[in-house]
Amino acid sequence: MAAPAVRIVPLGDAQERARLAAWIEAHPSATAFHRLVWGEAVAKATGHELLALVAGDAAGSITGYLPLHVVHSPLFGRAIVSAGFAVDGGILADDAATAAVLADAAWLQSERHSAPTLELRGGLLPHDPRWTIKSDAHAGFIADLVADGPDADQKQLEWIPRKQRAEVRKGLANGMTVRTGTSALDRQQHYAVYAESVRNLGTPVFPRALFDAVLDGFGDDADILTVLKDDVPVASVLSLYHRGTVMPYWGGGVWAARGLRANDVMYYALMNHARARGCARFDFGRSKVDSGAFAFKKNWGFAPAPLSYAVRNADGLPPRDVNPLSPKYRLQIALWQRLPLGIANRLGPWIANGLG
User: Fold this and answer.
1) Could you tell me the end-to-end alpha-carbon distance of the chain, in angstroms, rounded to an integer?
2) What residue ranges of the chain are covered by domains with CATH 3.40.630.30?
3) Phi, psi of 312 (to 5 degrees)
4) Assigned architecture for domain 146-279
5) How far apart are CA 113 and CA 106, in angstroms?
6) N or C: less crowded end of the chain, CB within 10 Å?
7) 271-316 confidence digits (pLDDT tens)
């Protein structure tokens, strides 16, 4: 049997784009990050070229897809990642043979673009000694929401473990309001809260254009939920909706959020909001093993599941290190936390744009 042929699909061709989009939509393992609108939003907002690698059989049928973003950064070097700014989006294929061919084709693109590092986030991973498989660094957290119906909000609250439920109740007693939407105000307030949140953690904020492009591309499959105290936003999250699952993807709170338990209220409100939209599952996203976020999600009753990524580096070169928890960034993080917010918001997008 002939090996699958791989080519870069020109997404500007409406017929080619529609055919690939339909194949992705039908594939049982496709994630929100395999959707063309994700890849195109990242490319539009960051300037990182999207390469749509497609494998096909002798009859011309699609058998696999791998979205690649060519990330270029003066600080972190060049890399190709699948998919850019995502926690998944690796090889999507009908069989192992197609996955292997796509992995080889991706490395060829790395060589052509002088990118010494190639990262595949999730998907079918290559069984090849030239690749390093990492399965102990990150974990994902997914759980079922309660069934919709009478008293569903109360049942959802009772689903949360006792200690965490007490924190949610304290937050609910603080008289905060919740708003959802994608308006200009929703976007502005979300970005302001998120930018302050990541500054406080010592990491640069992503370009606002990335958030706008994702919201525009996903349409009804993305929205913002914001928690306000006396009409002042204190916590906000941008969520993606995919196949009955909600994923709070970019969220955070200002300094006051902790005392108000605004983040606790935010995630509980999102559970209820998503269930009302017809979602059956809540994907709390990934976290570094043994991090504060890892413990927080376990406190909510979510069981961690290991996530596996594959990395290949050019011979003799060290892997790209963009992990904010890496010891080599400890000093930079401490300094960033002290930056005035205005300066952090001007410098942050330039730095974060190269993280991919």
Assistant:
1) 37
2) 5-139+308-320, 146-279
3) -130, 135
4) 3-Layer(aba) Sandwich (3.40)
5) 11
6) N
7) 999 999 999 999 999 898 888 899 999 999 999 999 999 999 997 6
Give the chain's largest Cα–Cα span.
67
Closest by CA to 84, choosing from 105, 115, 126, is 115
Closest alpha carbon to 155 in 265, 245, 45, 268: 268
Return the amino acid letter for 233: P
Name the nearest CA neighbour of 124 among 81, 83, 80, 91: 91
pLDDT for the residue numbered 162: 97
The number of residues making up the chain comes to: 356
Region 5-139+308-320: CATH code: 3.40.630.30
Residue whose C-alpha is closest to residue 236's, from 169, 299, 176: 176
List of E strands, the chain: 5-8, 49-56, 62-73, 77-82, 92-93, 117-121, 132-144, 177-181, 222-229, 232-242, 245-253, 281-288, 304-313
